[in-house]
Amino acid sequence: MRRPTVSWATMILLVAAVLGGCQGDKENDMDVQQRAEAAAEKNRQHVDDLVERLGGVGAKVVGDDIIDCDPQDPDAGLLHNYTVRFTAPEGAETRLKGEVADALEAEGWTVRRDPDTEREISLRFLRDGTSLGAKLAVHSDGATAGGSSGCVR
Amino acid sequence: MIVKVEHAGLVLALRRLESLADRIDTQAGWANQATPIGLPSLSVLPAKARWMRDQVPDLERLAALALLLDTGAEGSVSFETSGSEWDVQAMFDSVVAQRFGPDFQESTGLTDDEFRDLMLTFGSVGQTDLPADSGIMSAGDLQQLIIANPDLARALTTLRPRPGTGPEGTLAGLLTDAFVAPGGADELHEQRRLDARDLFEGLGGEQAAILAMMFPSTVGNLPGVPFDQRADANTVRIVVALEDEQDELGDLKDQHEHNQGDWDFLGRNNDDLDGPIGESEDLIDLYESILRDDRQILYFDPSGDGAMAELHDPIDSSTRNVGVLVPGTTAELSNFDGNAKRSRTFSDNNSAGELSMITWMGGDLPDSIVADAPFANYSVALGPGLADFSHDVRLEIDRAGSEAQVTYAGHSYGGAVVGRSELHGLDADRVLHIESAGMGHDVEDADDLSSSQSGVDRYSMTAPGDIIGETQGTQVGDNIGHGADPDEFEGTTRLHTGDKVDGSPNTGLNSHTTVFEVGSDAWQNMYGVFTGGTVETYRSPHYEYVRSTYGVSSYQDGWNDDGERIDIE
Fold first, then answer.
1. Record: contact A131-B520, CB cut-off 8 A
2. A146: which strand partners?
3. pLDDT value, residue A2
4. How far is B564 from chain A (nearest CA, A)?
5. Average pLDDT of chain B, as a whole number
6. For testing the chain B interface, which of A25, A67, A82, A123 should be mutated: the one with the most B CBs within 10 Å?
7. Interchain CB distance below 8 Å, B353 and A124
8. Dihedral of the alpha carbons of B135, B137, B138, B143, in degrees to the nearest 10
9. pLDDT band with cut points at 50, 70 and 90 for residue B437
10. pLDDT in the model for residue A123
11. Residue B553 confidence (pLDDT) above 70
12. Are B312 and B359 in contact, with CB atoms under 8 Å apart?
């Protein structure tokens, strides 16, 4: 019985396909990184804009991270978390629950009104797989605004 | 020859000597300018000033030596030198060799001046009333010196405290073996925890930090040591780990390069090292970030898959809540940063800055969901460590003058770790099981827990369709399964996992991870537990049924309205 043979041309094609596949993975990784960076830019804009709408002063970025969507799975995609601490002016709570929430809703954000607690007022806004939120301390002028780009694959 | 040295007197002498040399130079200069001819009596003066300055290093060495030997903080100390020659350098070398080992100075890679300042600084620990201008480094300067000199860091990691008097002796005493009555080991361990706290608290911030950096291998993970000093010590150990990892990466890259041209058939080994190289690069990024951003590492062990605990946002008197998040299967040092950043989202978003988070990965976790995660041995090994750490967290809260409530949250296999730690007396106010493997091997019902756990508030969340829900509550034999189902455990409040940030129900296989999406309902519920705020209890999934030629299929389109809002505090 004749042994099956593989021609050199077939071998070269196979090698090229394997190498091409690997190249594709690396290009895809770069695409994901670029898309995550673009999503991060938008995310920062949304959060900074929210701080501005609330009249926040002394804004300080406390978190600005592009991370794996699943820390234990590097292939799960990337997401961007961004958080700013700031000082909320008087009336920020009324503005957040009223005009700011209304304006964001009009721009297509779904408003999630978390129950007020003794310590904090919290509203979340969701749109196109991204989140935005503000938390205002009840007993001080401390406040945070944060956002997540959602997972970019 | 008996030599008596007094640090304060030596410092005074050397400052006066420097000052006198300066004055001689200045006045000799003026005299030379004032006279039209060169006077022989003036020409010798600069040489005298130079001679005085030449004595300064010896006086500084003597000052360092006076501190190093004066472990009882007496202010002066006598010692015997060999021979009759007055050789300060030899005396200094001899004392350093006795105290730190014969090759210590060489192994640090420091210049003579840097090393002398280091010895002065180490000698200052435990001393009182030190002169302000005695040349002792601040703890911050010492840390920068160590970060800039990996050889020094490595040399320090080899030091062990010696029995004797002073803070070093006390530290050594915490490590000595002791005979105890049956059952007395726990009591001794707790006493030593308090003794360690008292030692470092008694020294004050600067000296405590210096002692921590002097003996990093001893202090880094030592129970009772205040978190600031644990972090100081672990910074030194990270410097060493970074250099080791850079060497490892270099070797891997060399081998990778070799693999590309080694005529291996079809280049089968060309990509073999992509994974290890990536992990090594991740470790280097982690270590560099820790050093660059002054991150507070409370526990560190680079061996094997590694172990680390990190504090996010310091615990102080204004801290009202502390959350400790324990990751699960496949967590290891190379992906620690992702888990740390996940924890940090909670403290970062707390508006009043009253929440501190800790990421705790205190040892080896399963590498594989199928091959390892069903087995309890990892959680059985880690549980006691987490329970022990919980006492340090409480000590830190007390030390800060805070009355913070502490939540221990375990994600996935981390839930089983938290569960097992309860069997060892986890000091928790709240426990949260997040997509948890179980209540812990051998924890079948509340009676399995000791009375110390009776005051713990318990919460759990498991999203519909998370495959882990199928394994919860399973236990077979001595090492398979993780005890009771957390969602059904007596006294546990099951929480709503809700929607993802895209508005769709958080359901299915990915929900195991997407519960951590910042801004999702599940994340908000976790935040509620961590901050002692408001949470929404379990809502059952609502399914839509679709009839087709293949039969009836269903998908989740929302939630039934059967949950409620509850205030935790």
1. yes
2. A83, A133
3. 46
4. 12
5. 93
6. A67
7. no
8. 170
9. very high
10. 98
11. yes
12. yes
pLDDT of residue A131: 95
How many angstroms separate the CA atoms of B569 and B557, rounded?
33
Q: Please give the single-letter amino acid code of residue B567.
A: D
ipTM of the shown complex:
0.85
Q: What is the DSSP letter of B548?
A: E
- The residue written with tokens 């709240």 in the block is B430
Q: How far is B495 from chain A (nearest CA, A)?
A: 15
Neighbours of B16 (CB within 10 A): 11
| B356 touching chain A per CB within 8 A | no
Q: CB-based contact (8 Å) between A21 and chain B?
A: no
Which sign does the torsion angle of CA B1, B4, B7, B8 carry?
negative
Pick from B479, B475, B429: which is nearest to B452 by CA?
Answer: B429
Report helix, strand or coil for B558.
strand
In the predicted structure, residue A13 carries a pLDDT above the cut 70: no
Q: What are the tens digits of pLDDT across the range A85-123?
A: 999 999 999 999 999 999 999 999 999 999 999 999 999
For residue B132, give both structure tokens.
Answer: 């302000």
Of B75, B20, B80, the closest CA to residue B48 belongs to B20
Write out the two tokens for B314: 């310091």
- Name the residue of chain A whose CA is nearest to B518's CA: A148
Kindly report, residue by residue over B342-391, the tens digit of the pLDDT: 999 999 999 999 999 999 999 999 998 888 999 999 999 999 999 999 99
CB contact under 8 A, B352 and A139: yes
Angstrom CA distances, B526 to A29, B128, B409, B433, B529, stand at 31, 48, 9, 10, 5
Segment A15-25, tens digit of pLDDT: 444 444 444 55
Q: Which of B522, B542, B399 is nearest to B460 (CA)?
A: B522
What DSSP element (H or E) covers B358? strand B355-361
Per-residue pLDDT, A55: 97
Rounded to an integer, what distance in angstroms lies between the CA atom of residue A35 and that of residue A32?
Answer: 5
- B359 contacts B307 by C-beta, under 8 angstroms: no
A70 and chain B in contact, CB less than 8 A: yes
Question: Is B344 in Cβ contact with A71 (below 8 Å)?
Answer: no
This prediction's pTM: 0.91
Model confidence pLDDT, tens digit, residues B137-169: 999 999 999 999 999 999 999 999 999 989 999
Q: Does residue A149 sit at the B interface (CB-CB below 8 Å)?
A: no
User: With contacts defined as CB-CB under 8 Å, which chain B residues touch A131?
Assistant: 501, 517-520
Residue type, B543: Y
Over its C-alpha atoms, chain A yields an Rg (Å, rounded) of 23
Residue with tokens 């995310």: A43
